[in-house]
Amino acid sequence: MVTKKPFDHNYFIGYVSHVSPQCVKVHFPSSILLNKTIFSGEEFNGGLVGNFVTIEAENDGFIGKISEINLPEKERLALSEKSFQNSDFHPTATIEVLLSFDYFDGIAKHTLNAFPNIGAKVFVCPSGFIEEYVKNFGQKNDNKEVPYVDLGCLTSNLDTKVCVSQQALFNRHCAIVGTTGGGKSYTVARLIENMVANQSKAILLDPTGEYSVMEKGVQSVTIGKDSYFPYQKLTREDLFFLVKPSEGVQKPKLLEAIRSLKAVKIYQKMKSTSEKNGVRNLLKAFVNEDETLVIKEGNNIVEYERFSTKYFSDIESDNLELSIKNLGKQVINECISYPKNSKTFGSRNENDVNFCYGMVNRIYNLINTKVYDDAFNFRDKRLDNQNLTAIIDQFIKEDQQDNFVLRIGFESIGYEFQAREILANAIGRYLLKLAREKQFKENPLVFILDEAHQFLNKIVVDDFFQSTALSSFEQISKESRKDGLFLCLSTQMPRDIPTGTLSQMGTFIVHRLINYNDKEAIRQSCSSANSDILSYLPVLGEGEAILTGVDFSMPLSIKVSKPNVPPDSSTPMFKVQK
């Protein structure tokens, strides 16, 4: 597997002098060994903190990283400018052991029982050796043909490329985090370009439109401008988020109104066949003159229940296949009494009507609010070819090979009334539904959610201060991996991501983080994020990041390469007015 020799004498720098479960210490016979050298066309800097080394032990080889360099106390006392120029010192270094590998096949081992021995030789690690290990992280022995993602290079050696398996990067979900200006957007753009190059499908939810400049292999749609999410594909729970019914009277009446309007929809679609005509006649007495509403008052309960039983699965389905403009009127029609031992529905119940007027007004406001109509087409005025669910269905088809990334832009949707959060939750729920139907089993899909803190950990509060969480992304993170739907979150505030969601992320690309709570969120969610790694986060430069995760045997400090088409995320510059 590995072609570079890690234990060439020209790379030698010292011997192991101390071994502990956390680290090893190395004695350098001469400070000259730490000087910059060039061998076989490659530059080596043996004495820099952050450099990788290899250790030649008795039974296994080890890869480590220099975390600290010291001089012995007795040599420190003799320090002067002249002594630095003329004397030879004997420094020591602390090295964090990252992984062990087999001498014969080079395969990395994950064990706590392997340690270097005292006196083991330490060598500067050649770049090609690291590159090969990184490429094989997360790979299975039976899967040799895998796509790779070219992220960039190591910060400690710009000649060492970091190409990782796409499977290792996404198959346990991925999180890209960092403060504003740290390079998150460039990293997302870099991933998108690699997905296009690998002809792998991805859907990007773009809240600000900054990725609209990316065109090669990318299909772009903008909600509210040239597409909409059809309200018929919303669930009853989504409608509850929008309408906010109270538990006592409003929610039961709303549910009955939904069932009735679904029955009307079925009634309208029935053809005049002898078989269906008899069933259709069961509902005929309940439907008003223009066949838009159900009127139960004074009608036979048994006949309505027979019709409902016949089409139980359609009426009780979770979608909203109904005419929502009639929902408010139907809610009022549901406000009737139910007399005991009666075979017919009772008369209008004014108390229930009064309780429901507030919700009915919210329904009318919902339909007539522009931001909601732009998002969900409540007025049924937009074209069928702008239907986002149909666009998604077409995009994920195997024979669709023109574009490999679908960008869903939110830049035309306002921030009021939690419309963005509810819309994003609905899109996530729809993709989760497709995953449960095994749509991505053969051809996995990566769902990239930019500015994830805007959409996760969000709660909808109704007029009675009862709260409901938007949970589709948490469900995706917990259950969709086995069905081929992978989640990639990008956020500048990991502290605002629910712990249950962040803990499901198997891979982290962590750019500069300064806030204590943000760093703690990463530390608690990422098993390999130890204190040494976290100490680098506040000082990472633009584009620099820590790559770590379950399928990565060791964390890597990387410099992400600039994408070919950078996103439109630059900060406007002040100019001198002439």
UniProtKB/TrEMBL annotation:
Give the residue spans that cross the bilayer.
Answer: none
Coiled-coil region(s) at which residues?
none
**PANTHER family listed in its UniProt record:** HELICASE MJ1565-RELATED
Give the source species. Listeria kieliensis
The Helicase HerA-like C-terminal domain sits at: 444-551
- Its name, as the record gives it, is AAA+ ATPase domain-containing protein
Task: Please list the residue ranges annotated as the Helicase HerA central domain.
Answer: 150-299
The uppermost taxa in this organism's lineage are: Bacteria, Bacillati, Bacillota, Bacilli, Bacillales
**In Gene Ontology terms, what is one molecular function of this protein?**
DNA binding
| Keyword terms | ATP-binding, DNA-binding, Helicase, Hydrolase, Isomerase, Nucleotide-binding
Q: Record's superkingdom?
A: Bacteria
